[in-house]
Amino acid sequence: MSTPHRLLKHLVASLVIGAGLLWGAASAPVRAEAFVDGFEDLPLMPGLANVPAASVSFDAAAGRIVVAFAEGRVGMPAVRAFYSQTLPQLGWAPDGASRWLREGEVLTVDTVVEGNGLVVRFELAPR
Question: Do 97 and 74 contact (CB within 8 A), yes or no?
């Protein structure tokens, strides 16, 4: 693993831990390597867990496509706040309430209430 890639992973891990402390999620287990399935630099918000069976990832001629799901007992406003603060630090520019742009890619983060919890859908596609 190259040094810049390793530094990026450490930066993202620090952001995850720092964000958890800011939102009072320090009591929830925070892993230094908590990332959304299929993404190497998209932190998984504390309180969410990946749903591996629902994730899909492949490379297309136009770019990579990733669809991943996470679930947890967190509020929709907390998810929006976490990714609104975290994604710009990783180079993503907001393009609406749940859409982000970076280097020819579009990331959409949608939330759906399911029972007592929340399901978050992450979709990455070429622009």
Answer: no
- Summarised one tens digit per residue, pLDDT across range 20-62 is 444 444 333 333 358 999 998 999 999 999 999 988 988 888 8
Give the Å distances, CA to CA, from 91 to 21, 32, 94, 126. Answer: 22, 20, 10, 16
What is the rounded distance in angstroms from the CA atom of residue 66 to the CA atom of residue 46? Answer: 21
Dihedral sign from CA coordinates of 82, 41, 110, 29: negative
In terms of pTM, does the model score above 0.90? Answer: no
Q: Confirm if 118 and 73 have CB atoms less than 8 A apart.
A: yes
Both tokens of 30, joined, read: 């925070």
